[in-house]
């Protein structure tokens, strides 16, 4: 993602993000009462990272990218300084990011592409990190991570966690600090919340007070429950909470009895400390990604919550060489499950005006990570959709994004019938023209047409696009810039850019060659294809195919306009001339009539035709065995659309018809052909399949 902000804005935003993230770190790590979801938090962290990557010299001393967790200064528990700093993990949200990490590791170690490189992979349990210091195999101190340097002493508390042995089995080194996660199983978490509620109810009854369930403090998730239960001044409270533990690493150690992560994890297990049952060793990126899929499939059935899979480079000498960046090891990566649904705040509803004048409401969201990408906007489609969801700025909403699908707003969590609904504007926010919905349509459109700036730039972009005039070198940014300079008031101005050669050259980023190339591609369209030009005007209902159908019948643009205007004025013959064309119906006739009814459209049209001279439109035909014959297509075509097949037939000088009759010469039948195929057989008409048809077409062009 590229960041498009000025340096001053970047510095400001980094300052704001540092404050915001520190605030949420405190609520989450120190108080176990997060105010925003993890997806919203992760989006803030991502944004911070992206800006820092774009402006490395602006990275702050107090940058969230350098800090782990939260300082424990205010904690009532005693403090423990970690001998070896406790770290966080870098995140990946998709396979590509994992592969990038593997490639980075290989580059760092200068490993050849085929050199062996093994990894471990295990589920990332959602609890809180805990360090257990064993001396001569005896547990002497347990501590939370805190800010990575200083944590809280929870030695008396872990005495109540049966997964944590007071004495290790077998031979342990002089000093060995086991690190892992204290967590709460899902069922225990649910039971705990239920018990907290019941206890509060009983207490209220005893005191003969009114019971208000909304005042009872319950835990938001098992992670917060585990943290809140472990970090208790009174270890007696911890004793009543069903906490568990598993190990995933180590810190200070007088000796390390293994050469790989795998050997070490098995050793720790051998000392009687649980490790993940899903821990395994793999030989490649593909294999760890496969394990990720296996674990994500099992996730719903696991008795505890996990939020991803952790990969580590297996060889400890490699880990040593890779070392650390900022706050995480280079040799490990957390591949997080991207939440496909996330909660956030709808901050405002903006109305955007499209090329055809359609007013589209866009929801601006507090940034949130959904499906692994930061989402800040969501389309609200139209007025009806806003009414259906009952959304207004300020509402808490659920956003969903699966795969590459664009994000959708699927639910409003703040539905209160009493509040005033959002009022959809009845004027265009761009030009102030009236905005109306046509009979029976849900979409609301600006009636400003080519005088509406939103429609003008969008129409210009469409005008030069591939399917229309196809002018190289006039990209969206250039159009926006030229438009802002007042150089592109109407499409015809494109053909007058040659008079601004020096002015363009004076702009940033333009060189003699690029200006000459641009002007040359404009000149190459002085005699444009009439159907493409017509399509380029962006008249409603006149798409590329319709534009071609119209031009095939009227051959030049002034003739088309004359007929359209006559039809609009009520001329029956003109109307019939239009509607007798295959594929042209009332909507097209009405749209053309409306277009030529507006003076500003007529002016644009005349202007374009004064700058260009499209040659008479003729469908160029090729000689072939089907020239002059009638062809019918039926069944499913696999390599082309029905429209394309018909266009091919026309270029070969054949007539494409929709029904089989005695006049039919050839039937092209794809799979699923039914009655037409039967009729052709009865009439003794030649039948070929799609492949043979393609051969006929190819032969004609040889
Ligand atoms: N909602 C909020 O306001 C808020 C605020 C702060 C943090 N958070 C959440 O907390 C997380 C960030 O915290 P973090 O910095 O501890 O990072 P993290 O939890 O994403 O990853 C680092 C931790 O993962 C743990 N872990 C679990 N399984 C592991 C394994 N197999 N191997 C190694 N480590 C393993 C370790 O304890 C390690 O410290 C994010 O998920 C974030 O969304 C939320
Ligand atoms: Zn408008």
Automatic annotation (TrEMBL):
Q: Which reaction does it catalyse?
A: NAD(+) + (deoxyribonucleotide)n-3'-hydroxyl + 5'-phospho-(deoxyribonucleotide)m = (deoxyribonucleotide)n+m + AMP + beta-nicotinamide D-nucleotide
Q: What is its EC number?
A: 6.5.1.2
Active site as annotated: 124 (n6-amp-lysine intermediate)
Q: What is this protein called?
A: DNA ligase
The family annotation for this protein states: Belongs to the NAD-dependent DNA ligase family. LigA subfamily.
Respond yes or no to whether keyword Nucleus is given for this record: no
Question: Which cofactors does it use?
Answer: Mg(2+); Mn(2+)
Annotated GO molecular function terms are: DNA ligase (NAD+) activity
* Species: Qipengyuania qiaonensis
Pfam families referenced in this protein's UniProt entry, alphabetically: BRCT, DNA_ligase_aden, DNA_ligase_ZBD, HHH_2, OB_DNA_ligase
- Please explain the role this protein plays, according to its UniProt record: DNA ligase that catalyzes the formation of phosphodiester linkages between 5'-phosphoryl and 3'-hydroxyl groups in double-stranded DNA using NAD as a coenzyme and as the energy source for the reaction. It is essential for DNA replication and repair of damaged DNA.
**Positions bound to Zn(2+):** 428, 431, 446, 452
């Amino acid at each position: 993602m590229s960041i498009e902000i000025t340096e001053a804005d970047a510095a400001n935003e980094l300052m704001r993000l540092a404050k915001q993230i520190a605030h949420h770190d405190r609520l989450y790590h120190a108080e176990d009462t997060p105010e925003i979801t993890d997806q919203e938090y992760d989006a803030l962290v991502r944004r911070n990272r992206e800006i820092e990557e774009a402006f490395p010299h602006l990275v702050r001393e107090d940058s969230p990218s350098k800090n782990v967790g939260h300082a424990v200064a205010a904690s009532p528990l005693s403090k423990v300084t970690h001998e070896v700093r406790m770290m966080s993990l870098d995140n990946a949200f998709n396979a590509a990011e994992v592969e990038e990490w593997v490639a980075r590791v290989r580059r760092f170690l200068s490993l050849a592409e085929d050199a062996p490189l093994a990894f471990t992979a295990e589920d990332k349990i959602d609890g809180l990190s805990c360090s257990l210091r064993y001396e001569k195999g005896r547990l002497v101190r347990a501590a939370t991570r805190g800010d990575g340097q200083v944590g809280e002493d929870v030695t008396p508390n872990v005495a109540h966690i049966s997964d944590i042995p007071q004495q290790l089995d077998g031979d342990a080194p002089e000093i060995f600090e086991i690190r892992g996660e204290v967590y709460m199983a899902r069922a225990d978490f649910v039971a705990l919340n239920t018990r907290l509620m019941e206890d509060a109810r009983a207490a209220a009854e005893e005191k003969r007070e009114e019971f208000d369930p909304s005042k009872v403090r319950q835990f938001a998730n098992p992670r917060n429950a585990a943290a809140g239960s472990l970090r208790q001044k009174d270890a007696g409270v911890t004793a009543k909470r069903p906490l568990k533990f598993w190990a995933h690493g180590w810190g200070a150690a007088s000796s390390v009895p293994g050469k790989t992560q795998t050997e070490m994890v098995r050793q720790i297990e051998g000392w009687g400390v649980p490790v993940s049952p899903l821990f395994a060793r793999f030989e490649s990126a593909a294999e760890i990604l496969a394990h990720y899929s296996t674990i994500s499939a099992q996730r719903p059935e696991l008795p505890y919550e996990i939020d991803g899979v952790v990969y580590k480079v297996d060889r400890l000498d490699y880990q040593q060489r890779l070392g650390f960046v900022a706050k995480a090891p280079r040799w490990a990566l957390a591949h997080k499950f991207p939440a496909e649904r996330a909660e956030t705040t709808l901050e405002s509803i903006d109305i955007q005006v499209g090329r055809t004048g359609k007013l589209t409401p866009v929801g601006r969201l507090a940034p949130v990570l959904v499906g692994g990408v930061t989402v800040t906007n969501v389309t609200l489609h139209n007025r009806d959709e806003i009414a259906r969801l009952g959304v207004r700025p300020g509402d808490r909403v659920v956003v969903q994004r699966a795969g590459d699908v664009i994000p959708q707003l699927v639910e409003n969590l703040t539905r209160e019938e009493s509040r005033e609904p959002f009022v959809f504007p009845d004027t265009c926010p761009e030009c102030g023209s009236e905005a109306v919905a046509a009979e029976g349509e849900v979409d609301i459109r600006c009636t400003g047409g080519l005088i509406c700036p939103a429609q003008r730039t969008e129409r210009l972009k469409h005008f030069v696009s591939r399917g229309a005039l196809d002018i190289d070198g006039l990209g969206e940014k250039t159009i926006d810039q030229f438009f802002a300079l007042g150089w592109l008031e109407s499409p015809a101005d494109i053909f007058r850019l040659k008079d601004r050669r020096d002015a363009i050259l004076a702009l940033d980023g333009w060189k003699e060659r690029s200006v000459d190339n641009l002007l040359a591609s404009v000149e190459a369209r002085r005699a444009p294809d009439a159907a493409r030009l017509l399509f380029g005007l962006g008249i409603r209902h006149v798409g590329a195919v319709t534009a071609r159908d119209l031009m095939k019948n009227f051959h030049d643009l002034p003739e088309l306009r004359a007929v359209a205007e006559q039809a609009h004025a009520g001329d029956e013959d003109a109307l019939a001339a239009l509607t007798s064309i295959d594929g042209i119906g009332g909507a097209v006739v009405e749209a053309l009539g409306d277009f030529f009814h507006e003076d500003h459209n007529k002016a644009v049209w005349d202007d374009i035709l004064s700058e260009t001279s499209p040659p008479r439109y003729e469908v160029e035909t090729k000689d072939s065995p089907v020239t002059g014959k009638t062809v019918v297509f039926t069944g499913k075509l696999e390599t082309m659309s029905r429209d394309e097949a018909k266009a091919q037939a026309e270029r070969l000088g054949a007539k494409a018809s929709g029904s089989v009759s005695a006049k039919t010469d050839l039937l092209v039948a794809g799979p699923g052909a039914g009655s037409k195929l039967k009729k052709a057989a009865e009439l003794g008409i030649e039948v070929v399949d799609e492949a043979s048809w393609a051969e006929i077409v190819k032969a004609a062009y040889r």
